Write the structure tokens for this entry.
Amino acid sequence: MKGARRPELRLPPLEPWTEGELQPDGDYDGLEFRDADLTGQDGVGARFMDCALTGCAVDGTALGRARVLDSVLTGLRGVGTHLAESTFRDVELIDARLGGTQLHGAVLERVVVRGGKIDYLNLRESSLKDVVFESCVLVEPDFAGASLERVEFVDCALREADFGSATLQDVDLRGAAPLEIVRGLDRLSGAVISTGQLLDLAPVLAAEWGIRVE
């Protein structure tokens, strides 16, 4: 089992972002977005490099195909943030409070998600490589059709997860408590779980395999 490589972030001195409105295909380099209300703004295709986003509201923010590189995102909050087909590389997402975040078709590489709670996270058909979910709560995350390589769940609640048609390689689920999987138990080849987790999943496995337990 190969462990995930974590990002090594050293942000340069940052300039405050003062524009007030994101722009499609905008180029943001070395900026600090602090307590910005980005609700409903259109930043499709934008690039964030060496940036810090702290305490920002991202309700319905359109960031499809965005590239977020070497950046720290802290205390983001919002529902229905659109990040489909975006790229996150060398990123820390800390203490997020998000719901219905659309990340289908996204690419995540060397990403740490630490703390916070994310409901209904859509990662369908996405690619996750060297990703760590740590001390966070994921409610009904959707990994259907996704590719997960060197992904770790550390002290993390994973509730009603969907791994249908996903591909897993070196995925460590031992730190997930609870570990609840509603679809895709047959896709867990390439993952490691604990003995206790196996016992917890036994009723679901028995039902999926048509085994009657009396």
Remarks:
- Residues 15-209 form a domain with the Pectate Lyase C-like fold (CATH 2.160.20.80).
- The chain has a mean pLDDT of 96.
- Helices lie at 195-208.
- The two ends are 36 Å apart (CA to CA).
